[in-house]
Amino acid sequence: MNVFALFQTRVADALKALYPSLAEDILSRIVVEPPRDASHGDLSTNAAMVVAKPLGKNPREVAAAIAAEFKADTGVAAVEVAGPGFINFRLNTPIWHAVLKSVATQGADFGRADIGKGEAVNIEYVSANPTGPMHVGHTRGAVFGDALASLMAYSGYDVTREYYINDAGSQIDTLAKSTLLRYREALGETIEIPSGFYPGDYLIPVGQALAAEFGSELLEKSEAAALPIVKERVLVAMMDLIRADLARLNVHHDVFFSERQLHGQGGDIDTTLEWLRDEDMIYQGRLEPPKGKTPEDWEDREQTLFRATNYGDDVDRPLVKSNQQYTYFAADIAYHRNKYLRGFKHMVNVLGADHSGYVKRLQAAVKAVSHGEAEIDVRICQLVRLLKNGEPFKMSKRSGDLVLLSDVVEEVGADATRFMLLYRRNDAAMDFDFAVVKEQSRDNPVFYVQYAHARTYSVFRQAAEKLPGLDLGFGALTGADLSLLSSDADLELIKALAQWPRIVASAAEAHEPHRIAFYLYELASAFHGFWAKGNQDVALRFVNADDSMLTKARLSLVAAVRQVLVNGLSLLGVSAPEELS
RNA sequence: GGCCCCGUAGCUCAGUCGGAUAGAGCGCAGGAUUCCUAAUCCUGAGGCCACGCGUUCGAAUCGCGUCGGGGUCACCA
């Protein structure tokens, strides 16, 4: 039950009855939300101000007319016009008790919405090159994409979580060569790793596995013959490594899409370019060097260009390199056409800040290959600066100069890592201080929220102890007399719960999972606040040994808080422990 | 030089498809535990929302410009 959506509809209906000429798209701009100042009431709407202009009427006049429609409503205790034309509603308590009831009956589905209407959305995230283990730079995008996917699935989209494996470029050739060296090392040779190769220890076991599988057989082949075999093995090994790293963070994908399958004669890239040519989206031409500084090896040449400028990009983009291979972008156009042909009209890509220059051409590509039928939202995750006590972070590394994702998870745990990364807007750079994130204290919102959840279990333990005969089962609680929950403190907490569905909807629409994290913090705060009131006022305790009826009602409130905390934490992929150790 | 992101309390950040007196945590000052976990709560101080101009009933939010921080700029992926 979403109280806000309910009144949005009712206000819109009232307006339609009053002014039949109003267009639907104007009505859709009406917002019903809690007023900033709670003393203004429970709900507030800008409806009158939104429609006043198209109607050519005074906002306060319209507001008064709408308000009159609700005067006789039994659910509405008071309705008044305020300020420039806000309409404020104060609701009667049975509505809030109905919300509480619906949390119990809907359970994990309380907050689930159907804004996606079952439409397919493809969310691509991580897509790190399979050349080694995941490092911290990948972590934010991984967590963000994963949480966004959960959020959109919860909001009625048919979500596919996808990982694009960049397994076709020259980096992969270098990876194979590096692995071949490790293979020779495993056979007893002393090797030296040239600069430009991948020096990481993680290739040693791959070399050993090759030695175990092939003995010295590969040495007898030419490098050209051996490399493809090595490449197959090392790609599998690297993807296993990456999947294992992601699993540590509780990040998962449905589809791993290989770039290599797009290449080759008659492959998707060929057919896509042919199609683009037929559509006159490709031409042979020259590019201007970038303004400001010309690259030293700039070569003015005629090349195959995609008309990206026709679709909002700043320049047309090359599709074929000077060595006649396809550019990365050519493959990416084919890839996104493939997504479109698989039925995705909604796509989301989660990219790192270093790819922000890539956004426009990606949007251009999607627009072109779908004739404008598909849309792609590119979410950029800004850089994360690693700190320890305010100092730039260094730690012992197992490979290269990079701090690994697995190091971070080992150091602070998956829950804290995920929550902290999701407790920031994705498009703002952030600091990640290990000392703060590790500290299980008030500084750390993840423990604050988990503590609130654990406290709900504590309440039930207490109830079982103090009222041994009391039935605390689900059936008993749904039968509780909720009208006993009439204090301001009770209602305040229920109203916090009532926010959940609209928070989910707004977060899903905006593709902003951090709103979930902030809401959970607020709900936890409301719950901790209620708890503290019980210290002052016995009547506000959850457990009252001499009043089992009130206790039951309060316990159903506690159960509802727990349910919403669980619903939110599970969207974020953060655990909800019954006790903090 | 072009493009993208950011600039809000001492610090870290919410709030931004225009809405009422701009919020939270930390830090600072003070207070709460005979009673459900004080890993908690309550009170207080603290702001030209970087700056200027504009759009209108109304701007932290939208537009233009300036300043400051970060990212990025054919033939890498």
Features:
Isoleucyl-tRNA Synthetase, Domain 1, 581 residues, globular, single chain, Gyrase A, domain 2, four-stranded antiparallel β-sheet, alpha/beta, RNA-binding, 21 helices
Could you provide a short overview of the structure?
The protein is α/β, with parallel strands linked by helices and about 575 residues long.
Molecular structure report:
With 581 residues, the protein is of the alpha/beta class. Among the domains are: 3-91, Gyrase A, domain 2 (2-Layer Sandwich), CATH 3.30.1360.70; 442-572, Orthogonal Bundle (Isoleucyl-tRNA Synthetase, Domain 1). Strands 7-6-5-11-12 form a 5-stranded parallel beta sheet, with helices on both faces. 40% of the residues are buried. The mean pLDDT is 91. Helix 7 (170-186) crosses helix 8, helix 13 crosses helix 14 and helix 18 (488-498) runs parallel beside helix 21. It has 21 helices and 15 strands. The radius of gyration is 29 Å and the shape is globular. It binds one RNA strand of 77 nucleotides through strand 10, helix 11, strand 15, helix 16 and helix 20.
